[in-house]
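Lab notes, practical 5.
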Amino acid sequence: MNGFVVLCLLLAGPVLLLVAASPVYKHGNGTAPVPVVLWHGMGDSCCNPISMGQIKKMIEEEIPGIYVLSLMIGKNIIEDMENGFFMDVNHQVSTACSQLAQNPKLKGGYNAMGFSQGAQFLRAVAQRCPSPPMKNLLSIGGQHQGVYGLPRCPGESVQICNAIRHALNQGVYSDFVQEHLVQAQYWHDPLNDDLYKNKSLFLADINQERAVNETYKKNLQLLENFIMVKFLQDTVVDPVDSEWFGFLKTGQAKETETLQESVLYKEDTHKIFALEYQDVHR
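Output from the prediction step:
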């Protein structure tokens, strides 16, 4: 049994839990399972038959009659993969919102399942685009506090990742790098916290680290459940604590802290995190 099959089996439980949380919606004169929307991670595409295509198939087999949409950002799977490296994240989120709003099968609402960077992108969808309504969000290894490291990528993406790593090292918060590299937009430098907050085009905004956006707060609180799955042996996300909204303590790059230990949480005078992420530590 290969690693991906094992991953699919491990995900079967969370997927069924996600769908069971809001199992049916009215469809014509009857009911149907709530649709599921997927967003892939870095270096992947919507429809790769050995990754997202297999997960889509697994969900459809486990839940007969369910509609599953795997988001494709671009005209084909090659563009979709490349856009995961080079298209402005805010543009990607806007494109996804447009696709969702125009899809009649989703008008009654949907459950969302994001993998790696696709998880924080779907959280942005929840915060920015409440129609159609996202009912539940399942984050699989999402980097909700960003990353401070980019490891070598497997397979065909190795050269792309090496080039991106070089660009990040040269000036991750320069206007050019921020505007042209997806991973730069959720790069979180704990040694330059003010620079991160001022220059991050995506993550600092959706995490409300410059100012509180009441619309973001209201929309995210509409979620019935926000489930974050952390891979304890993850070698891709650095630091792995970001998958549970933790991160490195500000001012150094060795010691990590949980969400509840962070300034972002403790000084949350608007109670955004206390309300939205109360299930993180259960």
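Observations recorded by the TA: The first strand starts at residue 24 and ends at 27. The mean pLDDT is 83.
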